[in-house]
Amino acid sequence: MRKLSHLDEQGNAHMVDVGGKAVTHREATAESLVRMQPETLNMISSGGHKKGDVLAVARIAGIQAAKKCSDLIPLCHPLMLTSIKVEFQLLPDSNQLRITASCGLDGKTGVEMEALTAASVAALTIYDMCKAVDRGMVIESTRLLEKAGGKSGHWSAAP
């Protein structure tokens, strides 16, 4: 079993010292799925929401969340991200909206938390903007899809 790196020798939580790690290019991609009524998905895709472009607002929210990840997640390192991308895919057969968030940098620690935070906050923003028309929306899953770089190399989730 791997030792949790956020615990010191006394078992106390601490921020991991990454000072001795090599700078490498690191990337991570995460996704969130939001299930909703077909009418809600149609309203989002057509741009017909009276609050404006739901996907544009969710994209900005996801980008902002990735940039502020260390303010939201305890013990997360503040990072100078060099790329953040938030994309959406409408899945009408399952009444879902798939959010994919990717982050990258050249640094000493990974960007998995930033990608996961971006996908999560984009999903929450969609819920917030559409809750008046569909309170039954469900954020079904948020997960890491892929990470690359650093000592542990490349990892991909099972399909």
From TrEMBL:
Oligomer status and interactors: Homohexamer; trimer of dimers.
Domain Molybdopterin cofactor biosynthesis C (MoaC): 15-150
Entry function: Catalyzes the conversion of (8S)-3',8-cyclo-7,8-dihydroguanosine 5'-triphosphate to cyclic pyranopterin monophosphate (cPMP).
UniProt similarity note: Belongs to the MoaC family.
InterPro entries: MoaC, MoaC_bact/euk, MoaC_sf, MoCo_biosynth_MoaA/MoaC, Mopterin_CF_biosynth-C_dom
Active site: residue positions: D128
A GO MF term: cyclic pyranopterin monophosphate synthase activity
Pathway(s) of this molecule: Cofactor biosynthesis; molybdopterin biosynthesis
Keyword entries, A-Z: Lyase, Molybdenum cofactor biosynthesis
EC number, UniProt record: 4.6.1.17
Amino-acid positions noted as binding substrate in the UniProt annotation, renumbered to this chain: L75, C76, H77, M113, E114
Keyword Ribosomal protein in annotation: no
Biological process terms in GO annotation: Mo-molybdopterin cofactor biosynthetic process
EC top class, as a word: lyase
Pfam families reported for this sequence: MoaC (PF01967)
Catalytic activity: (8S)-3',8-cyclo-7,8-dihydroguanosine 5'-triphosphate = cyclic pyranopterin phosphate + diphosphate
Protein name in the entry: Cyclic pyranopterin monophosphate synthase
